């Protein structure tokens, strides 16, 4: 199932230069530390969550509120953050050196990573240039899209049959239906993982309830059915109505103890109460590619690119494995377990193009 190894090479001096940064070290420490554990704890909005603390969290992560900070303080914070999470483009050679002699595997979020964040989630269309960049990467490395969207919907957006797709935050995984490097790859096409299948009836029931309550009473709110999870988008909701929206969603979920509520970028996520997330999806896909915990794990260099809190679960897995590179897409400083950063989807496209152009003659 694995693709031919592609080796990324560069001058050894680059690694020393990367390590000389005041806060930055690569490869990163094997554990994510207290900050990663704290970050993971902030995502779940269970019964103990209160509306006030949730609203404070949303305001703190809002770009509009970030821009209201004093300019000097914001600049200092940004500079310090960039030292700890430097640009993956600026430090590309260090990343390439760390991947030398290993099989690269690429994992990409969709919204905010391959496409811009837009007011209407149905209009999050990736550009043709981005699609060609992803196509080029997939021709050389195993490549997967890992999204909170439904798998069928994100496939419609991307439109590339040679990729692995993990929708519903990794609860709906299927292998490529076409592989240019392995046209007869029945094994890859047979990859399937749906750990939350038993929740489909209750997800449909809650979807109908949220549409009838939230969408009809909160202007701008949109409920999206992602098959194994639900998204309640409030990007177009007035900030004064965020609290009411949150309470309505929690009111519906109180009768469904098997579901939990989490928070993303201007979205609330309703998910089954199972131990599965984008990190588990990453581990499953690495195992499906032949790089699980059976002794070959050290032969792979996973690169995971994402912009959302839900992507932190994948960044944590890379930290725990002590390998690969997590890349956060963000224009603003935020707590993250990622090692590198990129500012917006345009930089993601440029990063993918650089991956394609690397020398892959040594295995």
Automatic annotation (TrEMBL):
> Which organism is this protein's natural source?
Digitaria exilis
Q: Any idea which UniProt keywords this protein has?
A: Hydrolase
- Please give the NCBIfam families that the UniProt record associates with this protein: HAD-SF-IIB, T6PP
Molecular function terms from GO:
trehalose-phosphatase activity
Q: What is its EC number?
A: 3.1.3.12
Task: Report the superkingdom from the record.
Answer: Eukaryota
- Pathway stated in the Swiss-Prot or TrEMBL entry: Glycan biosynthesis; trehalose biosynthesis
Tell me, in a sentence or two, what this protein's role is. Answer: Removes the phosphate from trehalose 6-phosphate to produce free trehalose.
Its recorded name reads Trehalose 6-phosphate phosphatase
Q: Identify the PANTHER family for this entry.
A: TREHALOSE 6-PHOSPHATE PHOSPHATASE (PTHR43768), TREHALOSE-PHOSPHATE PHOSPHATASE 9-RELATED (PTHR43768:SF56)
Membership in a protein family: Belongs to the trehalose phosphatase family.
- Any matching Pfam family: Trehalose_PPase
The record's section on Gene3D superfamilies has: HAD superfamily/HAD-like
> Which Gene Ontology BP annotations are present?
trehalose biosynthetic process
Provide the cofactor list for this protein.
a divalent metal cation
Q: State the reactions this protein catalyses.
A: alpha,alpha-trehalose 6-phosphate + H2O = alpha,alpha-trehalose + phosphate
């Amino acid at each position: 199932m694995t693709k031919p190894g592609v080796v990324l090479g560069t001058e050894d001096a680059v690694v020393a230069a990367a390590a000389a940064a005041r806060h930055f070290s690569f490869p990163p420490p094997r554990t994510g530390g207290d900050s990663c554990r704290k970050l993971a704890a902030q995502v779940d909005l269970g019964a103990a969550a209160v509306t006030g603390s949730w609203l404070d969290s949303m305001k703190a992560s809002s770009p509009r509120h970030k821009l209201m900070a004093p300019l000097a303080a914001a600049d200092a914070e940004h500079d310090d953050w960039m030292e700890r999470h430097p640009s993956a483009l600026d430090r590309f050679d260090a990343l390439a050196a760390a991947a030398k002699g290993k099989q690269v595997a690429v994992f990409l979020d969709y919204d905010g990573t391959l496409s811009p964040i837009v007011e209407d989630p149905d209009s999050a269309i990736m550009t043709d240039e981005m699609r060609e960049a992803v196509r080029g990467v997939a021709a050389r490395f195993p490549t997967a899209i890992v999204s909170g969207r439904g798998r069928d919907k994100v496939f419609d957006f991307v439109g590339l049959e040679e990729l692995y797709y993990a929708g519903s935050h990794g609860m709906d995984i299927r292998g490529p239906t076409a592989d240019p490097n392995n046209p007869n790859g029945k094994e890859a096409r047979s990859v399937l993982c749906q750990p939350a299948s038993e929740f489909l009836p209750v997800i449909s029931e809650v979807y109908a309830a949220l549409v009838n309550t939230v969408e009809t009473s909160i202007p701008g709110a949109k409920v999206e059915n992602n098959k194994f999870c639900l998204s309640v988008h409030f990007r177009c909701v007035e900030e004064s109505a965020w609290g009411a929206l949150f309470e309505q969603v929690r009111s519906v979920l109180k009768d469904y103890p098997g579901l939990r509520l989490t928070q993303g970028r201007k979205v609330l996520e309703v998910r089954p109460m199972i131990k599965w997330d984008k990190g588990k999806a990453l581990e499953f896909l690495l195992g499906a590619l032949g790089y699980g915990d059976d002794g070959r794990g050290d032969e792979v260099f996973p690169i995971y690119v994402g912009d959302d809190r839900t992507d932190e679960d994948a960044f944590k897995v890379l930290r725990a494995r002590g390998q690969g590179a997590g890349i956060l897409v963000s224009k603003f400083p935020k707590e993250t377990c990622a090692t590198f950063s990129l500012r917006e989807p345009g930089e993601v496209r440029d990063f993918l193009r650089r991956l394609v152009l690397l020398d892959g003659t040594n295995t």
